[in-house]
Amino acid sequence: MSRAVLLLAVDTSGPAVTVALADGQGVLAAAHRDDPRRHAELLAPLIAQALAEAGRAPRDLTDVVAGVGPGPFTGLRVGLVTARMLGAVLGLPVHGVCSLDALAAGAPADLPAFLVATDARRREVHWARYRRDGAGRARREDGPHVALPAAVPTSGLPVVGRGAALYPELLGEPVPGAPLDVDAAALALLAARALAAAPGTADAAVLLGPDPLYLRRPDAVEPGARKRVLT
User: Fold this and answer.
1) Which residues contact 89 (CB under 8 A, 6 or more apart)?
2) Which CATH class is domain 107-171?
3) Assigned fold of 6-100+181-206
4) CA-CA to 155 of 20 to 30 Å: which in 14, 132, 196, 225?
5) Other Cβ atoms within 10 Å of 148 Cβ, number
């Protein structure tokens, strides 16, 4: 018998800060702010807002899940550090879900195969390829990767996500009705389904550890020995 679940989902892998609460039946509350420069400032108030909307307290949570990217180093770590901190303080398990999987979950159901592409900055995109299984659920077949838009092997497939909006001449126009950025509500539903699934199934495999998917080195590096001496 599966356990009762009340999970908090957060994602800061893209330009938005997005939060949602879900149980085994659906999403109870969600909060969202588009501001890529204020992730750390906005996340805690949005968590409090979602809890208040659902009439729940932190002690009611059973799990925490964070989008693990891929995404820019600084923004992505805000969500992951916050999720880990909450898990440590409240004594809760902390899970990760690939943020591109959450975007894929929001793609129109009539797309049998498609790509997801998000803004990786430096004029590149993060991308992955998906195909629907017999139950109609999007399963990742390839990726995630980081590449120049011109190097993404679209093979004529439609592209979901902000990457298509930024580079339509290379990736094609964004799919109508598909999300451009990650929604924590989709992330929460994926995680809730995974927690209820039997181990070893495709649904359960969506859950990852709460470790960031960095597909390239951060810009900041440790200074060399000579520079450390001079400073």
Assistant:
1) none
2) alpha beta
3) Nucleotidyltransferase; domain 5 (3.30.420)
4) 14
5) 13
